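Ops channel
N.P.: pipeline sanity check, posting one input/output pair.
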């Protein structure tokens, strides 16, 4: 831009400083037009600031105190725009933002928030665990309303609280480039969840959202569920650790019957119980898009496991399922084993810490011998002893011999009272005995 075009703008800028001071208006809370601000920054060397100040109209002040106040105001503005320029320069070299001011310095927050919207290089914000607080989140939200290049935001464990969460949600209503956002462990309650849900109803670009480890409860889960019925872009959602209970799970289940885009959902540690799990199981019978689901630590018991088993007999899209720490017992394990004899899509299943004894594991092992699609199964912390361990070793060997498909079993063999080597040796001996019995000894 030509110099003669810049100088009149700077004159107007300087005049506005004085006018605001004289009329006792709060300069710190005003936002300058972006174009004017950017052009101003090009002239913000110390030398040019001095020339700018000298070039402003000379005014008479009634007292020396008034003149001093005017000087302090101008100096403060000069300091702020120098700070703004430093953030512009800093951000221009980054593709991933890992530093953001906390709520202790309002000038830094505002300068960063004004510098970020027009940045074209940053595509990811990674501020996990930085504790930016509510004020930091609000400043970031202002920037996100205008920025058009950032695609991923990670704000895990930042104590953004109610006001920060609401500000971020409102920004998501306007932003059209963010794809992934992580707000887990941020002390978000059901009130904030409702605002976030409203944003998700309107937003059409977010594909992944993490709200885990908050406390949205059943009401928050219901609000999110309503949003998921309407949203058509989210493919992955984490609602784990939110104390949604049975009612919240039922609302999510209803949403999953209608939603056709979600492929991955995390619902662990929500105190869902058997009734909530039954509702989810019914939804899984109808849903044809979910491939990964986590339900560990939900107190489903054998009744819940049986409901899931019935769903798995009919479902043909789920590949990975986690049911750890649900006290499903051997009855639940047997139901799952029966379902897995028919299911041909699951590749990974986790059943750790479920009070499964040797009877349940032997039944599972028998299924694993025949099912050649399951590649990974976790069975640690289940107290099934050496009998169960040997049965699993037999399954590993037979799978390799019969279908040449590798079966990976994750457990601490020392928990079973027998080493893996010893279990394999006894398994091989058992297989050989079975072979000899099946042979015709015609001499």
């Amino acid at each position: 831009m030509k110099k003669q075009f810049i100088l009149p703008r700077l004159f107007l800028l300087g005049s506005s400083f004085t006018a605001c001071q004289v009329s006792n208006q709060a300069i710190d809370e005003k936002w300058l037009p972006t174009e004017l601000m950017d052009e101003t920054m090009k002239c913000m060397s110390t030398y040019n600031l001095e020339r700018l100040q000298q070039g402003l109209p000379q005014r008479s002040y009634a007292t020396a105190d008034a003149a001093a106040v005017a000087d302090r105001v101008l100096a403060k503005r000069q300091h702020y725009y120098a700070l703004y320029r430093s953030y512009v320069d800093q951000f221009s070299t980054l593709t991933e933002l890992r530093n953001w001011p906390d709520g202790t310095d309002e000038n830094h927050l505002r300068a960063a928030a004004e510098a970020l919207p027009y940045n074209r290089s940053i595509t990811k914000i990674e501020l996990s665990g930085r504790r930016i607080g509510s004020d930091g989140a609000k400043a970031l939200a202002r920037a996100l309303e205008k920025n058009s290049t950032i695609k991923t935001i990670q704000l895990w464990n930042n104590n953004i609280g109610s006001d920060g969460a609401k500000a971020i949600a409102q920004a998501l209503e306007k932003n059209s480039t963010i794809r992934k956002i992580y707000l887990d462990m941020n002390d978000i309650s059901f009130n904030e969840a409702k605002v976030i849900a409203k944003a998700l109803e309107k937003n059409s670009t977010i594909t992944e959202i993490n709200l885990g480890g908050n406390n949205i409860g059943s009401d928050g889960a219901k609000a999110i569920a309503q949003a998921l019925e309407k949203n058509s872009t989210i493919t992955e959602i984490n609602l784990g650790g939110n104390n949604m209970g049975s009612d919240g799970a039922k609302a999510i289940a209803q949403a999953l019957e209608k939603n056709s885009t979600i492929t991955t959902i995390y619902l662990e540690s929500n105190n869902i119980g058997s009734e909530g799990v039954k509702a989810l199981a019914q939804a899984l019978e109808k849903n044809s898009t979910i491939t990964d689901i986590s339900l560990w630590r939900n107190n489903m018991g054998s009744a819940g496991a049986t409901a899931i088993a019935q769903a798995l007999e009919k479902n043909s899209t789920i590949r990975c399922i986690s049911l750890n720490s649900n006290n499903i017992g051997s009855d639940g394990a047997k139901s799952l084993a029966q379902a897995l004899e028919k299911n041909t899509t699951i590749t990974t299943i986790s059943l750790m810490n479920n009070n499964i004894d040797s009877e349940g594991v032997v039944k599972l092992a028998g299924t694993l011998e025949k099912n050649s699609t399951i590649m990974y199964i976790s069975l640690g912390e289940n107290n099934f002893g050496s009998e169960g361990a040997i049965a699993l070793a037999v399954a590993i060997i037979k799978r390799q011999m019969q279908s040449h498909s590798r079966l990976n079993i994750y457990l601490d063999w020392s928990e079973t009272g027998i080493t893996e080597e010893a279990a394999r040796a006894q398994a091989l001996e058992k297989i050989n005995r079975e072979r000899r019995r099946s042979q015709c000894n015609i001499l």
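N.P.: looks fine end to end. The CA atoms of residues 101 and 109 lie 6 Å apart.
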